[in-house]
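Weekly modeling sync, notes
Attendees: S.R. (lead), two postdocs, one rotation student

Agenda item 3: backlog of single-chain predictions. S.R. asked that every request posted to the team notebook include the full sequence so nobody has to chase files. The rotation student volunteered to paste the first one in as an example of the format we agreed on. Action items at the bottom.

Example entry:
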Amino acid sequence: MVSRVRLKAIMTGLAFYAMAAAIIGYFFVNAYSGKYGLNARAELDQEIVTLTAELARLKSERVATDKRVALLRSTSVDPDMLDERARYQLDYVDARDLVKMLDPH
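Predicted structure, as returned to the notebook:
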């Protein structure tokens, strides 16, 4: 009888240690590879670099577009810009322009 009680106490202790080890292992694995873990941090850093480059490209594109729009404002219309936009939208060509026809195929 004494051996069964002692065996039960040892097994209970081992079960608690095993459960604690499993819980610690679970948190360790999630800290390394989880959604907010160490691997995710590297992926987020790479995404930050990519999005920063895209933001810089879009800002420069916006500046260029703003310059073109400023030339078409009613307070100071650039005649060349107005002529270019009108020809583009109406599909007109001046008689003095050189036109190169491309093969439609």
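Discussion: group reviewed the output briefly. Residues 12 and 76 are 87 Å apart (CA to CA).
Action items: rotation student to repeat for the remaining queue; S.R. to check formatting next week.
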